[in-house]
Amino acid sequence: MKKTLLLGCSILGAVLLLASCNKEEDQGWKTIPQDEVSIKDGNAHFTVNGVEQPQGSVKVVAKSSSQAQVTLSGIVPGYDEVIFTASLKKGDNSTYTFSGVSLLTGGPSIAILKSVAMPQDYIYRVAVEGDINTEGVVNASVTTQLSDEFKGGLEGSWPIKRVAPVVNDEASAGPLWINWTFTDSKYAGATTIGKLAGTILGGVLANYLDEVTFNADGNITAKYWEDSDSDEFDISKIFEYQPVLDEKTNSYVYGNKHDDKWIESPAANYAFWLVRNGMLYIVPNLSVLSEDGDTSLDMDSLSESLQSLKALGVDVNTLTAEIMKILENGVALKYSSDGNVLKVYVDKSQCDPIVKSFIPALPVLDKMLADLEASESEDDQQTVQMIKLVLSMLGLEKPSDFEGLWNATETFEIELNFTK
After folding, report:
1. Which residues contact residue 34 at a Cβ distance below 8 angstroms, ignoring those fewer than 6 apart?
2. Which of 18, 95, 146, 253 has the most CB atoms in a 10 Å sphere around its CB?
3. Domain identity same for 136 and 167
4. What is the pTM of this model?
5. Confidence at 116, pLDDT banded by 50, 70, 90
6. Residues spanned by the domain of 130
């Protein structure tokens, strides 16, 4: 009987001890602050893909001693809010560590940002790992990973196309090319101007850009050259950058004037990429590109600017719709690739809404040109002659004639060409 009593007391003591420990543990995780913690206030420190994050906030809500809901606001580039169901563990002293993964189906946006959940098919995998103490100080890192389903076979480095063979006694497409054809031979001069502009701009591009890399984490990086005199760019330099004909290969070669002194940009979250529905989307990260780290867009200022265009005759409804698409989804580009050759381009169907929104304003340019012609200034007259020369080469008499040219456009492509 005595042994039974002692055994019962021992079991009761063990139960009470465990209950006491559990109660103490419960009280521990319950002391984690549930307030939103801001990076700018100095109480949160975050890196995104290894890069310091300048702004944003985090909220850690402990659900139990082993689980917490972590909400990141304005931290993951292109997403207003990302929510994680994270594991929670007691660390040293008053610190708790957390880690979790969220699978995002919505693509990143430039300014019209989205909240996301955890569905089956995802575009980005975002992971968070860090710690929070009972004083509300957070240190954490975030990493992103683009799903293979949304890479479109483009992951990797793509050097720009630097050799353009001569075809039918004409230069073929270089690193940048403008292909513009018409149903009316009246505008054949515009086709020639397009090729000339493509060659000139391609020469400039080849001097400043060597390679673009689509990284697995969604970052876009590049090898580029920064002109020390970039603040005082002399337009006459563009003629120094033009391609050179290699008579042995009968090809134009696009080189550079700085002996390959390329700079490699870091994966610093400047812009992200994804391929969706056969389109390549480029999404700039405003928080990094803006000086104050602000990702918001002043819609009142945008509306005011658009209204000023409306006074000139611009179709602001169509223009606004196109701008909102870009802000929400990023810059949409078409592309074609065979594994070793990549062409990224915009065509007439993409440009049509924007171009046509400005066509109603062209009569205003007619009047401006007429006023310039009436000027007695020698500089104004030189400007008039230059404008008329360009119009003549395009098969136009006045700016508003551009509507006929655009309607007669059969093919219009501005393309960037890469080759491995």
Report:
1. 59, 60, 61, 62
2. 146
3. no
4. 0.86
5. very low
6. 32-150
